[in-house]
Design a protein that fits this description.
By secondary structure, this protein is an alpha/beta fold. 37% of the residues lie in helices and 22% in strands. A 9-stranded mixed beta sheet has the order 4-3-13-12-14-15-16-17-18, sandwiched between helices. It has an 8-stranded mixed beta sheet with strand order 9-8-7-5-6-10-11-21, sandwiched between helices. The radius of gyration is 26 Å and the shape is globular. It catalyses: a long-chain fatty acid + ATP + CoA = a long-chain fatty acyl-CoA + AMP + diphosphate. It holds the Pfam family AMP-binding. One of its GO terms (molecular function) is ATP binding.
């Protein structure tokens, strides 16, 4: 008879091998016959036809929310933290920081939220908002944002979504182009509106979201414009006193004109129908495991981003709860949280979150820095636990499963998971490629799968999604059930759908989630949207991908990011940046290549904590972080780290930046150097740092 100890080791090992091999072998995407331009096309392995709605008789977002509110009436839906106090702290160098003392979450049930939606819709009519007029929402993510969105849907009013970080020029362009008549905003957005009030041609009404009285800007705006200015609460009150029947939309009606934050030039407005967004919402429902009314979702991404808008509609559809937070109050250590006060995640204890890679990178660096600072036994335990988990996932060691898994959770990972509340069971990552290192790190430390997705505003975030049991990294999964994915040849870049061992080419997405096109921009719409002979609508992404044998997609390049160097070598800027940003010294990076030279250079936003810790250990004297970034030793250390990361990623020599410039200040949406989704605005950064870039090429 087998020794019980050996049995305890052998049985988990056998099951791990069986299920790991099964999951690695099985098809997740399968070839499909489609029309349009020739290429290699696949669809989700579980569906023979594209999913348009997951609910019988439901064809719009308005119908979906109404039905869910009926089913989950008493269940809590929208949660907002109580603001106890707001204080200003001054640090040693004289800079002041706003700190918030936040209390518990206060909740609206589905019934209460739906009642507020109906009243807001009626209040719009009482304010004079007419049929066919557009509403813009220009505010940070919060409960009133969601209520306003659903209220507009009940009046079949198209909502124009605008990032709250958008600059004045782009803001004017978006509002004037769509001829918005009613504008909904937050307190801080009122100040921006005050600056541009005379440049807006069609705005008649402003509704402000505020919790503590009438902002002083209201009277100034009223004196200097012809706008009527009303509080959100007053609109709801008007609707309660004067109810109006709903004017419900149909599937083909435009629900949202979503302005992309624009990595180049002015933003473009993407026209999304109710059917477009519903297709993505329905598809995600079939992919995320065991979604249900016990799930709690922490909302902190911009609702003006399709990833967040789709995610919140998914949660509302299943009877889950949405607790609102912000990136600056997310954890106990976040910059706007008063010391001793709990962050949003600790208070809410969510089970599901959506995040962009930049946020997950910060979590990873934060954990790693804390571990390094503690040092000693704590660091040794963490490293051992991490390596054992990594070996288990990679299949080379199975001791990290079973009892040992429980032990490491208790000793090491339990404390890390507490950073995000301790109950996270699924993370949805989108908006940009997630590095393999960060994906694996978060997966191990938080103990939850990361569903990395690929999609665009133009496809309502629908495209691909990695399944919960797919432990691979660096890929973005198989097609969502609402989409066909096709790779078409791009001979100029050397990518062909006939390539071996994997088909490669430009990624083209087709399905009911593909949007109508760009508002008032037929030329650009015609360039990237095509309708085939079968009536299928396709969007040409400009991204380059390859299909793995199991039907999962990997993003490997982007057409616009390729630069030909002096001696004929092609450099993919985005690919190199993704490889180098894993350096612990890097907060952000932009690679630059000049066709008249044979080498690349880079602008590097340095990670202040990591670089200062290194400098202190090396006894390097510096007055402040700006001074440190100019030190030759610091530049040499960071450059060495980039070379090391490049070698790990197997970059060619000509792809590695020969020279770098360290920058001390972060690139933020407010600075205009990155989008609201934290993607770099390459052209704007080039102009901003033109002098620094030119110095790289001086002899």
């Amino acid at each position: 008879m087998m020794n019980p100890y050996l049995l305890g080791v052998f049985v988990p090992l056998l099951f791990s091998v069986m299920f790991r091999n099964k999951n690695s072998r099985r098809k997740r995407g399968v070839p499909v016959d489609v029309g349009g331009e020739p290429g290699y096309a696949i669809q989700n392995y579980r569906f023979n036809s594209l999913v348009e709605t997951a609910w019988e008789g439901i064809s719009t977002l308005a119908e979906l929310f109404e039905e869910s509110s009926k089913q989950h009436g008493r269940k809590r839906l929208l949660g907002t933290r109580n603001l106890i106090s707001m204080e200003t702290e001054v640090n040693a160098d004289g800079r002041s920081f706003e700190k918030l003392h936040l209390g518990n979450y206060e909740w609206l049930s589905y019934r209460e939220a739906f009642e507020a939606v109906c009243r807001f819709a009626s209040g719009l009519v009482q304010l004079g908002h007419g049929k066919g007029e557009r509403v813009a929402i220009f505010a940070d993510t919060r409960a009133e944002w969601f209520i306003a969105l659903q209220g507009c849907f009940r009046r079949n009013a198209t909502v124009v979504t605008i990032y709250s970080s958008l600059g004045e020029e782009a803001l004017c362009h978006s509002l004037n182009e769509t001829e918005v008549s009613t504008l909904i905003c937050g307190r801080k957005e009122l100040k921006k509106l005050l600056n541009i009030s005379r440049q807006l041609d069609t705005v008649k009404r402003v509704i402000y979201m505020d919790d503590d009285g009438i902002p002083s800007d209201v009277s100034v705006i009223e004196r200097n414009s012809s706008w009527s200015v009303t509080s959100f609460a007053e609109v709801v009150k008007l609707g309660r006193e004067h109810p109006v029947s709903a004017d419900v939309p149909v599937s083909a009606d435009v629900a949202v004109i979503m302005y992309t934050s624009g990595s180049t030039g002015l933003p473009k407005g993407v026209m999304m129908t109710h059917g477009n967004v519903l297709a993505t919402v329905s598809a995600v429902m079939t992919i995320v495991p065991n979604l249900g009314n016990n799930d709690v979702y922490l909302a902190f991404l911009p609702l003006a981003h399709i990833l967040e808008l789709a995610a919140e509609n998914v949660v509302a559809a299943i009877g889950g709860s949405i607790g609102y937070g912000s990136p600056l109050t997310l954890t106990d250590a976040s910059s706007k949280i008063k010391k001793g006060t709990k962050g949003d995640a600790s208070m809410l204890r969510p089970t599901v979150i959506a995040a962009v890679p930049a946020i997950l990178d910060r979590v990873r660096y934060g954990v790693r820095n804390q571990v390094d600072m503690k040092g000693g036994l704590s660091k040794k335990l963490f490293n051992i636990a991490y390596e054992r988990r990594l070996s288990a996932i990679n299949g080379s060691w199975f001791g990290a499963w079973g009892l040992e898994n429980i032990l490491w959770n208790f000793l090491v990972f339990r404390k890390i998971r507490a950073i995000l509340g301790g109950r996270i069971r699924f993370i949805l990552s989108g908006g940009a490629p997630l590095s393999a290192d960060t994906q694996r790190f978060i997966n191990i430390c938080l103990g939850s799968p990361i569903g990395q997705g690929y999609g665009l505003t133009e496809t309502c975030a629908g495209g691909t999604f990695s399944e919960y049991d797919d432990t691979s990294v660096g890929r973005v999964g198989a097609p969502l059930p609402c989409s066909y994915l096709k790779l078409i040849d791009w001979p100029e870049g050397g990518y062909l759908s006939s390539d071996s061992p994997m088909p490669r080419g430009e990624i083209v997405i087709g399905g009911p989630n593909v949007t109508l096109g760009y508002f008032k921009n037929k030329e650009k719409t015609k360039e990237v949207y095509k309708v085939d002979e079968r009536g299928m609508r396709w969007f040409y992404t400009g991204d380059i991908g390859q299909f793995h044998a199991d039907g999962c997609l990997e993003i490997i390049d982007r057409k616009k990011d390729i630069v030909k160097l002096q001696h004929g070598e092609y450099v993919s800027l985005g690919k190199v940046e993704a490889a180098l940003i894993v350096s612990p010294y890097v907060d952000n990076i932009m690679l630059h290549a000049d066709p008249f030279h044979s080498y690349c250079v880079a602008l590097v936003v340095a990670s202040q904590g990591t670089l200062e810790d290194w400098a202190i250990k090396k006894a390097i004297i510096f007055t402040d972080f700006t001074d440190l970034c100019q030190k030759e030793e610091a530049v040499k250390e960071v450059h060495g780290s980039l070379v090391k990361a490049a070698k790990v990623a197997r970059l060619e020599k000509f792809e590695i930046p020969a020279k770098i410039k360290l920058l001390p200040h972060a690139w933020t949406p407010e600075s205009g150097l990155v989008t609201a989704a934290l993607k770099i605005k390459r052209e704007i950064i080039r102009k901003e740092f033109a002098e620094e870039l030119s110095k790289f090429y001086e002899s």
